[in-house]
Amino acid sequence: MRRVVVTGLGLVTPAGIGKEAFWSSLVEGKSGVGKISKYDMSGYPVQIGAEVKDFDPSKYIDSKEIPRTDLFVQYALAAAMLCVQDSKISLESSDRDRIGTLISTGIGGLQTIEKNIMARIEKGPTRVSPLFVPMMIGNMASTHVSMKYGLRGPSSNIVTACATSNYALAEASEMIKRDDADLMFAGGVEASLIPLGVIGFANMKALSTRNDDPEKASRPFDKDRDGFVMGEGGAVLLLEEYEHAKARGAQIYCEIKGAGYSSDAYHITQPDPDGWGAKACMKNAMRKAGVGIENIDYINAHGTSTPLNDRIEAKAIADVFGERTGEILVNSTKSMVGHLLGAAGAVEAAAVALQIVNKTVHPSINFENPDPESKLNIAAKAVKKEVKYALSNSFGFGGHNCCIVFGRVDA
């Protein structure tokens, strides 16, 4: 069986750009949430979000391409470049027929969609850009990265709402295992933090309305949580066949041990009340990884900070792990970066990889008043801990669930 390891991390997040800035913010418990600065949100019930700060696309993209690409594609190109640099892969001397891309997005070019709809309404049909379609469709993140680096292996896009980039990582891993590729640039990006995106979720009553205290707004598993905080950005990870990585002397962060899937088959937005889908997904991931509940040291929860998700996820974890529930450290990266929608799983996978390497579990901030219904052992502060096996959960609208087991290579 071909093994799959993580050998590169590229991050563009509200907690920082690049793995060093990202990790520093996480371990120090710094919130990336604030008042939305790119748009005038006065009059909106929600005025806060987790924005990417100081992003200059010209550092990563040819200036001619900037007006021809949506922001989500720019995030993908930036994260891919950072991933290439971090992995120290020499693409010029690699067999690029054996390198693929699976960089997904849950929504795609929402800014481009809104801009062109307004152009049609206000100025007429001839003012819709001829680049409208290729700028907004979700597969363009993978497309542009494959074109930039001449990667001729598998190239795809998976859309499963907030589970999107976990699915992307899992399927990219399977492509390597079944010998369709030796390396895959995989992950997710999202750029929907615009007024239209915000009001869509706000009118659904899904978002926190703590406009006066934005850094405290994302508080997964806290009793006083009132909704999630929208974020933007993304992450690209280099997945590599283990022997290939060893042969080139690559740094190895961790191994993807196995992934599990399930469907709630229940509701378009609400999780199954009993947590059936989440429980089945975690069990499937551990079964595929060949590990038992006694092996998991740490869980990166989906942990959105919504009343319903956190309650049901906490119940599902407790039902799966039983008496071990209180022994397993749990955190939510979303407490600091907000909810990156389709990019959430990839950013959280990068966080898991860094926690394994640094032997430190980052804090889940704003956990001040434990929910009496929850039995979880939330890491409210950074904890020094050797993590042999970690479980990362992603659950999406429509009942799409994907959980991944990561582990040390020697585990």
Shape: globular
Tally of helical segments: 12
Strand content: 15-25%
Number of DSSP strands? Answer: 16
Taking the sheet with the most strands, its summary is: 12 strands, mixed
The oligomeric state is: single chain
- Low-pLDDT windows of residues: none
N-end to C-end Cα span: 16 Å
The overall pLDDT, averaged over residues, is 98
Percent of residues in helical segments?
25-40%
Order of helices and strands: EEHEEHEHHHEHEHEHEHEHEHHEEEEE
Query: What radius of gyration results from the CA coordinates?
Result: 20 Å
Q: Helix- and strand-based class?
A: alpha/beta
Could you explain how this protein is built, in words?
It is globular, with a radius of gyration of 20 Å. It has helices at 19-28, 71-87, 110-123, 132-136, 140-149, 164-177, 195-202, 242-247, 276-289, 307-321, 334-337, 344-358, and strands at residues 4-13, 16-17, 34-35, 48-49, 99-104, 155-156, 183-190, 233-241, 254-263, 298-300, 329-331, 360-361, 377-378, 383-384, 389-396, 400-407. With 411 residues, it is of the alpha/beta class. The strands form three sheets. Strands 1, 2, 5, 6, 7, 8, 9, 10, 11, 13, 15 and 16 form a twelve-stranded mixed beta sheet that branches. Helix 2 packs across helix 5, helix 6 crosses helix 12 and helix 9 (276-289) packs across helix 10. The longest helix is centred in the first third of the chain and has 17 residues, at 71-87.
